[in-house]
Amino acid sequence: MFQTLVPAAASNTPAASNRGVLSAAANGLDGFIVQHGGDLDRVFGRSGIDPEQLLHPTLSLPLTNYCKVLEEAANQTGCDNFGLRYGQQFRPQALGLLGYIGLCSATLEDALINFSAAFPFHQHSTLIELVDQGECYRFDYQVRHGAIAERRQDAELTMGMALNLVRHVLGPDWAPRQVAFEHAKPQGWHEHRDVFRADVCFGQRCNSLLIPKGDVVGKAMPGSDPVLLMLIKDAIRQLGDTGSGTSNGHDATLLDRARQTLLATLHLGEPALDEIALTLGLSEWTLQRKLREHGISFTQLVDQIRQELALNHLKQQNLSITQLASLLGYSETSAFSRAFKRWFGVSPKQWRGGDCRV
């Protein structure tokens, strides 16, 4: 039986989706973008990022903007594996308070446990979980913000950060048992295998690293400091709690929660209002009413999510039209093609072929 050492933190609390991520997660991002030939003003401008914020590692960035700047950097630099490469060079020390929570722990096993436990204070609207699977620990990570559909670059960056925490102790040649990503297999997937030195699976339930226990149990952290660890834990907890009294509360996050649920279940088939309402702990009538208060109907929300995902996956060129239709919950490819033409005026095949770009 699997045991969760660090309970999942998906941040459905009222303030969670209003906070974001500490800007330490973007340490050195400006230089890395320039190094890859990117136009910094253009990338930051399109993503709504104020460069001044990146100078202060304890300031908070909206998670939507953070994920967007990574995707925009990949697009603008032409480096499809931007997040992977950014994560490969991202050392624990650069991650600010969260990184030092790992570094100051007593053992590598403790570092993983403490890192996972503190992560919700570093970044909100995110699932983070360390699962005991017997011979291995499974480190799970997934952004669960309803407004964020494109998050591949963030996932690859974060897996690289976790990898480097382990390699800080075990050396650059250490490899996990397996790596999993939720997004489709990119064209440059061989680079992922080379970076992690392990089998990498795509299109999975969640982003994860499978870490053999024998590699981490009893391995001392070279910079262990229990007093500093206690102080840093208190500091990151206080930062994570800042702003918990935001005014628009539960209803402000309902739209995000509905989007999260739809994103997680869309591949299972046509979304049903009653099932989504049940998952959210609401009656159908209440869910419809609350969505109307946000200016959208259930059908419109489903359409909106399908449009975003369709464009995202068509850009990646990794799924056939039939596979994409199934991923979006359509029972027939023809139904997806009709919907896509209704949305954008062309078929998915024409859009992918370059006849139109939205």
Automatic annotation (TrEMBL):
InterPro entries: AraC-type_N (IPR032687), Homeodomain-like_sf (IPR009057), HTH_AraC (IPR018060), Tscrpt_reg_AraC-type_HTH (IPR020449). One of its GO terms (cellular component) is cytosol. PROSITE patterns: HTH_ARAC_FAMILY_2. Keywords: DNA-binding, Transcription, Transcription regulation. Residues 256-354 form the HTH araC/xylS-type domain. Pfam families: Arabinose_bd, HTH_18. The keyword Transport does not apply. One of its GO terms (molecular function) is transcription cis-regulatory region binding. PANTHER family: HTH-TYPE TRANSCRIPTIONAL REGULATOR GADX. This is AraC family transcriptional regulator.
